[in-house]
Structure formats: C-alpha cells, structure tokens
From TrEMBL:
PANTHER family: ALCOHOL DEHYDROGENASE RELATED, RETICULON-4-INTERACTING PROTEIN 1, MITOCHONDRIAL
Name used for this protein in its record: NADPH:quinone reductase-like Zn-dependent oxidoreductase
Gene Ontology molecular function: any one: oxidoreductase activity
Species this chain originates from: Micromonospora sagamiensis
Domain Enoyl reductase (ER): 10-308
Organism superkingdom: Bacteria
Keywords assigned: Oxidoreductase
Amino acid sequence: MLAVSQDVGGPPDVLKIIEMDRPVPTVGEVLVRVHAAGVNPTDWKTRARGQFATGAVPPFVLGFDVSGVVEEVGPGVTLFSPGDEVFGMPRFPHPAGAYAEFVTAPARHLVRKPANIDHTAAAALPLAALTAWQALVDTADIQRGQRVLVHAAAGGVGHLAVQIAKARGARVVGTASAAKHDLLRRLGADELIDYRTADFGALRDIDAVLDTIGGDYTPRSLRTLRKGGILVSLLPMDPGFPAGLAEELDVRATRILVEPDHAGMQAVADLVARGQLRALIDTTLPLGEAAQAHKRGETNSATGKIVLSVVV
Ligand SMILES: NC(=O)c1ccc[n+]([C@@H]2O[C@H](COP(=O)([O-])OP(=O)(O)OC[C@H]3O[C@@H](n4cnc5c(N)ncnc54)[C@H](OP(=O)(O)O)[C@@H]3O)[C@@H](O)[C@H]2O)c1
C-alpha cells in the first residue's frame, strides 16, 4: 500500500510517499480501507519534533483521523463486517498511521459513518469533535442557558465546539478574526470578539471556557469566569498553567488530552445524523500532498479542517 512516512523530524518536506506492507488486523481489530484522513496540529507538531508524545520515533506514519470502509475483521470482532463505512480516531496518542491506504484499528475506536456525510467530511471530525465533546460535555458538563467562551472558534476544534455547545443549549461567545464572524454566526455563535482589535478579557460571568490557545490566554480567560466556572485547556504541556490563580479566583481550571472513546464518537455521529454538527473543510489535498497540507496547517489560520483524500 501507499503511505506517507518520514525518516527524521523536520519541516513538511520530510514527508514522503512510500510503499509499505498493508497492516494485518489482530484480535479485536479491523482493517480499514482509508478513503480520507484528517490532518490535525498534533500531526505537524509530531512531524517537526520527529517523535510522538508516547516516545515513538521515525520511521513512522502520521495521522489519527480516518474515514473509510471495513476491509477485513480480526478475531473476536462482532461490531463491524466487511463493507461497513466507519470513521474514528484510533489509538491516539499512539501512532495510528492514518496517512495511508489502509489502517488497522481497535473496533471500538470506530463507529459507523452517518449516511448524510461523505468520507471527506467524516475524516474531518474525529479528533477535533471528540476533543470538543470531551472538553465541553464530559469535563465542563455545560448546561442549557450557560455562556461558553470558545477560543479560536473558527479553528478545527473551535468550529465544532461552537456547534456542540449550541446543540446542548448553551450560549456561545467566540474569539476569531473579523472576516470569520459571519460564518461563525451561521454555525450558531451568539457573540463574537475579534481578538485582534478587542479584549475578550473584559467578558464576565462566563460559565465555561474552551482554551485552545494557552499562554496568556489562560490567565486572562480565568478572569472572565463566574465563581465556580471552569476553564478546560487543550494544552496539557503548557508550562505556565496558572493553577494558583484559578484557586485564588475560586474557579476551576483543568487540562485534557483527547482519548479514543466509542460513546463520544457515537454522540458525534448522532449529532451529525441529526444535522446539528458538520465539519467545515478548509482544504482537501491528495495523500501525496501531505507536506502541502501541513504547510497550510502551520499558517495557524485554517477555517475548519484540512483533509487528505486517499480514495478519489
Ligand atoms: N489536548 C488535546 O487533546 C487537543 C486536541 C485537539 C487540539 N489540541 C490543540 O488545540 C489547539 C487548536 O487546535 P485546532 O485543531 O483547533 O487548531 P487550528 O484549526 O489549526 O487553529 C487555527 C485557528 O486558530 C485561530 N487562531 C489563531 N490564533 C488565534 C488567537 N490568538 N485567538 C483566537 N483564534 C486564533 C485561527 O483563526 P484566525 O485566522 O481568526 O486567527 C484559525 O481559525 C492546537 O494547539 C492543538 O494542538 C489539543
């Protein structure tokens, strides 16, 4: 099969298309023919570092988000059969090898793809939507009528978080550059702040913050929370995390790393099937242009998601 591999850490051009053996599903796993693979910041950070967070070093194949068709099932798998259309975020944070024509995945790291979206739209969802779900629903437990501040609301995680928060009945305040406000209003955002010209730190009585940025955004966001409110940071390794300030302000602050999650993936699929969640696609490129996809991602200005199409 074809896959995108790298032998060293470095700039996007270290990514190269190679031929390698098709993986073989072991007990509890399925083999998926990949139709599309989503691209995430963790991919370009891992590529540049030349190391996964788990310590895995090159040569390796990047990519966690996959949408495709079950080709084969391993021993013990009852959830899927060959021919089923599935999507998910297998194995994270261990290497999953989604930038390839085939991947194996533990069966319960996948769910059925909703019929109302194609593989490109499905591959855009898993990691970013699971992150938003686990942050806002599982961790912050946002409630109907609450005010939720979503930073980088037009980004991969942010635009899905906006829709998930709306589907839970919350009011959404988003930060994004002005050119993206109309789009975010159409996704349901209630209040928008152009972070380049206005200070979101003037907000008060926010119930929950989704902090996708870190750095000085974290202490500034803590001050927007009501007493007992919660900030969920997506930057678990941010060295300056202000736990002491949260205590002083009588608010909660926590950091999460997304996990493979069958129930969460099913919740995401159900929202999609009901028409309450859709991924915006910033760019679609063929698998062989993964380096170009990373260059686009590293501009830190994507609106929605970048996806590699594998079967066209
Ligand atoms: N902990 C976890 O499990 C986890 C999971 C997923 C993602 N993450 C992390 O979360 C971060 C966001 O991920 P992502 O996929 O959403 O990234 P992304 O799609 O690449 O983010 C791009 C977006 O960020 C916006 N942006 C950039 N600087 C901003 C600022 N100062 N204020 C507000 N918006 C800003 C840009 O909008 P403008 O053009 O308007 O600036 C753009 O729309 C990354 O660091 C990623 O590694 C962590």
